[in-house]
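Memo to structure team: turn this sequence into structure tokens by end of day. - J.P.
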Amino acid sequence: MTSPQARKGSTFERDVVTFLQANGHRYAERAYGAGRPQDVGDIDGLVGWTIECKNHKAMDLAGWVDEAERERVNGRQSFAAVIAKRRHRSVGCAYVVMSLDTFARLTAEDDE
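Reply from structure team:
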């Protein structure tokens, strides 16, 4: 039997997938094999992205972003972000957290 924390995390991951699919990301799905040495994130199907989902009472943004970045390297993706659940709010109100480096690469204007 899984722990209550694991169930809470799995439920949030499923909710994120459902939200993404309903909002233009029809190939979004849960990635399986979390926790393995070559973990590649929690959500698959967003080309170029590693997504790490977190549903914790206390936030550890630095640790979570570092984890997402390691998993981005494992999965050979361009960008990494953390989707963090907001307590007592719907999944659409979750926070998306990334490093400034990721944000700058994502939003850079091509001067060519």
